[in-house]
Every structure is written in structure tokens, then in C-alpha cells.
Design goal:
464 residues, mainly alpha, two-stranded antiparallel sheet, 17 helices, 2 strands, disordered C terminus
């Protein structure tokens, strides 16, 4: 748990620092990713607002009149928000080993992020508990504002229906269930150590059964609610462009820093909506970061356990914050996003499921389920319901063990270059022609990588 929390704490604050960067960049009359007339833009850039201006009377005669075809069916088209993200904010290098230069604006925002986290945790849970009242509740205000604005836009219903329509052909894929398990473990904070850390400050007879039910329902309901907010705006953008929602949907950093910011440029007073959106992201990220840092600090203090370190806990918090800042500096380089995604995919996804499985088996079958149920009854005054007893002993371990199939490599797994796919590195299952797989060198400016949208659709024109 400590290793996973350390990994996540290092790179998660980098994501917050990027949100800080976009927040500060939104303090302008015109968003810098709205048009293609910036020094960092390439000739392939085709902005929605630029093309709209062309169709309003300034379009050269040589350009085709079909705006949707011009913007979306050309393989050369890149949005200004994508080029702002790749060429200006990240200055993305061509290889994971080519670190290039540290981006000083991102480094400064990373410092701001760690200073904010440290100041909020300077007195431990006494100070963070008060701050969390704001960071945990105000995002709901922003979500509601964005939701009301989103559902009143043209095309919002189309985006919401895309969000709610399941793809039944994906239901039997183990990877889908593996991704879902990783997401729910990630969002609930299971196996991070944060729940155990924060619970250690509760009263002995605190009703943790009631708290767990409330948190689980609230977490899932919030995720569904946020989906309405996101896809109402994306539906509006798709309607504006005249394309399917799957063409504008994205996942991961591409959704938060490319697709959604581009959609915000279409709204009146777009800097205001951008400020609200990224302020919400900052608050959500800080709430998670508080828990991660407090977990590390509490573990260190409890492990040492002498009187001096108990009195100097503030210095331990400062030391962990400084160490986290220094370890996060490489992630602000030109290759930093490669390493961030690498850490996110392998250090903080399916590993949480594995840790939870080990915890479940250890408590139920090594410590003993009878001892555990008696402990709960001693604390709560009543034993856990029969449903939970059956799930803890049989259902949960069986489901988690079944998810091991989600870790099987795909057909095209292996070295990128054909000359390296020989000998011991030859693929055990050769790619079949119907898969349509073509091995190409990984180059972020040229490689067209298939991305998976929020409902499982594959987006063939998304770039890294």
C-alpha cells in the first residue's frame, strides 16, 4: 500500500499542476487554445472557431464548403487544443527516453501544488479536515453549474444518449471488467492505505458500516452525474461539427486537457467556464492528494513512534512534500507525460485489485473470518450482515481471481519494430489479417493510435 501510495502521490500532483497551468491560462479574454494563429500551431491545425469564421464570409474559394468534412474527415486535421497540449504545454518529445528540457511553467505550477498541499496538511488531520469540507463539496456546485449549462445546449441529448447506451458486445471482454474494477478501486481509495489511515482517527465505536454504504453510493452517483456533465458538452461539440459523439470523445488526459477544453471554446464567455472546470479539477485532485500525503506521513510517524517525531510531525510532512516535488521534476520534462502514463497504467491500476485480493484472503482465511466478524461486532454492537459475510469470504475473492484474464497481452504486444520481433521476442500469437494490425514505430507526431472512448468505442483518429 505504501509503495502504491508513493507512486500515485508523485505523479498525481503533476496532474494537479497541469490543471493549475490551464487554470492560470484561462485568465484571459480569449482562451489560448481557441484559434490556430499562435506561434506553436502547425499548418495542419484546423480550429472549430477558425473554420466557423471562414464560413461566415472570409473562406477562400479553394476551400471545400462542407465544414464537417473539412474539419473531421481529413486525417491531417489537428485541433488547436491538441496542439496547445502537445506542442506548447508539454512540448512533447519524440521518445520516452528523450527527456529534453524541464518545462519551467509546469515546474512552477508543481511547486504551487506541493505548497498548497503542505499548507493544508501542516497540522495534520486537524487542518486537512477543515479544508476537505470545501474541496469535497464545492465541486458539486461547479458540476451543477456546468450541468445546467450543458443540458441547455443543442446536441446535449445526443451526447447523453451516447453516454447511457451500452455496448453489449463488450460485456464478455475480460479487459472491460478489469478496467471497471481498477476504476472503482481507484475512485473508492481501496488498497491505497488512505482509508485505514483516516479511519484510525475515528472514535472506536464509529459506525463504519453506515459510512461505507454512504461513501460507496455517493462515489458511484457522483461518477454518473459527472458523466452527464461531460457528455452534454461533448454532444454539443459533436452537433456543432456535424459528427458522431465518438469522434470527439476521448479518455484520460486527452479528455480533461484536449477534448473538453476544445468544447468549452464553443460556449459564450468561454474563459469563465474554463476557470470553473479547471478549478473543479484542482479541488478534486487536492482532496485525493491530501489523503495520499497523510497516509505516507502517518505511516512514517507510526513506524518510528518516538516522542520527538510525534512532536515534529510538521517537519515530516515538509520532508515528504519536498521529496515528492523533487521526484516529480522529471515528469515536467518533455518526456514526462510518457512516464506519467506509464506509472498510472502499471503502478496504480490493476495492482490495487491484487492488493485488495491479498487483503481479503488474508483477513478471511488467515486471520479468520470468525475473529474478524467478532471484532466488527465489538466495535459496532452488531455483526456484519450475512450478505457482506458471503461476499468477503467467497464472492469477492472469486471475482478478483477471475479478473486475472484481463491481464493477458493483446495480439500485437511486443517490440514496436519488425526487426526486433524475432527469437525470444517473437509473438506467441501472430496477428491475424482481420485484426488490421500494422506494426509501426511509435512516434507521437505520426503514429495514429486507437483510443477507447468512455463507452468502449475505438477512436481511430486520436493522437497520443
Amino acid at each position: 500500500m505504501m509503495v502504491v501510495s508513493t507512486y500515485i502521490g508523485i505523479y498525481y500532483n503533476v496532474v494537479i499542476c497541469i490543471a493549475f497551468y490551464y487554470f492560470f491560462s484561462s485568465m484571459t479574454h480569449v482562451l489560448p487554445w481557441a484559434y490556430c494563429n499562435n506561434p506553436w500551431n502547425t499548418p495542419d491545425c484546423a480550429g472549430v472557431l477558425d473554420a466557423s469564421n471562414l464560413t461566415n464570409g472570409s473562406r477562400p474559394a479553394a476551400l471545400p464548403g462542407n465544414l464537417s468534412h473539412l474539419l473531421n474527415h481529413s486525417l491531417q486535421r489537428t485541433s488547436p487544443s491538441e496542439e496547445y497540449w502537445r506542442l506548447y504545454v508539454l512540448k512533447l518529445s519524440d521518445d520516452i527516453g528523450n527527456f529534453g528540457e524541464v518545462q519551467l511553467p509546469l515546474l512552477g505550477c508543481l511547486g504551487v501544488s506541493w505548497v498548497v498541499v503542505f499548507l493544508c496538511l501542516i497540522r495534520g488531520v486537524k487542518s486537512s479536515g477543515k479544508v476537505v469540507y470545501f474541496t469535497a463539496t464545492f465541486p458539486y456546485v461547479v458540476l451543477t453549474i456546468l450541468f445546467v449549462r450543458g443540458v441547455t445546449l443543442d446536441g446535449a441529448f445526443t451526447g447523453i444518449m451516447y453516454y447511457l447506451t451500452p455496448q453489449w458486445d463488450k460485456i464478455l471482454e475480460a479487459k472491460v471488467w478489469g478496467d471497471a474494477a481498477s476504476q472503482i478501486f481507484y475512485s473508492l481509495g481501496c488498497a491505497w492505505g488512505g482509508l485505514i489511515t483516516m479511519a484510525s482517527y475515528n472514535k472506536f465505536h464509529n459506525n463504519c458500516y453506515r459510512d461505507s454504504i454512504i461513501i460507496s453510493i455517493t462515489n458511484c452517483a457522483t461518477s454518473v452525474y459527472a458523466g452527464f456533465v461531460i457528455f452534454s458538452i461533448l454532444g454539443f461539440m459533436a452537433n456543432h461539427l456535424g459528427v458522431d459523439v465518438s469522434r470527439v470523445a476521448d479518455h484520460g488526459p486527452g479528455l480533461a486537457f484536449v477534448a473538453y477544453p476544445e468544447a468549452l471554446t464553443l460556449l459564450p464567455i468561454s474563459p469563465l467556464w474554463s476557470l470553473l472546470f479547471f478549478f473543479m479539477l484542482i479541488l478534486l485532485g487536492l482532496g485525493t492528494q491530501f489523503c495520499l500525503l497523510e497516509t505516507l506521513v502517518t505511516a512514517i510517524v507510526d513506524e518510528v513512534g518516538n516522542e520527538w517525531i510525534l512532536q515534529k510531525k510538521t517537519y515530516v510532512t515538509l520532508g515528504v512534500a519536498v521529496a515528492g516535488f523533487l521526484l516529480g521534476v522529471p515528469l515536467t520534462s518533455q518526456a514526462g507525460i510518457y512516464w506519467l502514463l506509464l506509472m498510472d497504467n502499471y503502478a496504480a491500476s490493476f495492482s490495487l485489485v491484487i492488493i485488495s485480493c491479498i487483503m481479503c484472503v488474508s483477513i478471511m482465511y488467515i486471520y479468520g473470518h470468525r475473529n474478524y466478524f467478532q471484532d466488527i461486532q465489538m466495535m459496532l454492537g452488531f455483526p456484519p450482515p450475512l450478505f457482506f459475510q458471503i461476499c468477503w469470504r467467497f464472492v469477492s475473492p472469486a471475482i478478483i481471481f477471475r479478473l486475472k484474464n484481463a491481464t493477458k497481452p493483446s495480439r500485437d504486444w511486443g517490440p514496436a519494430l519488425l526487426e526486433h520481433q524475432t527469437g525470444r521476442y517473437a509473438p506467441t500469437i501472430p496477428p491475424s489479417p482481420e485484426d488490421g494490425l500494422e506494426v509501426q514505430p511509435l512516434h507521437p507526431d505520426k503514429a495514429q493510435l486507437p483510443m477507447v472512448g468512455s463507452n468502449g468505442s475505438r477512436l481511430q483518429d486520436s493522437r497520443i
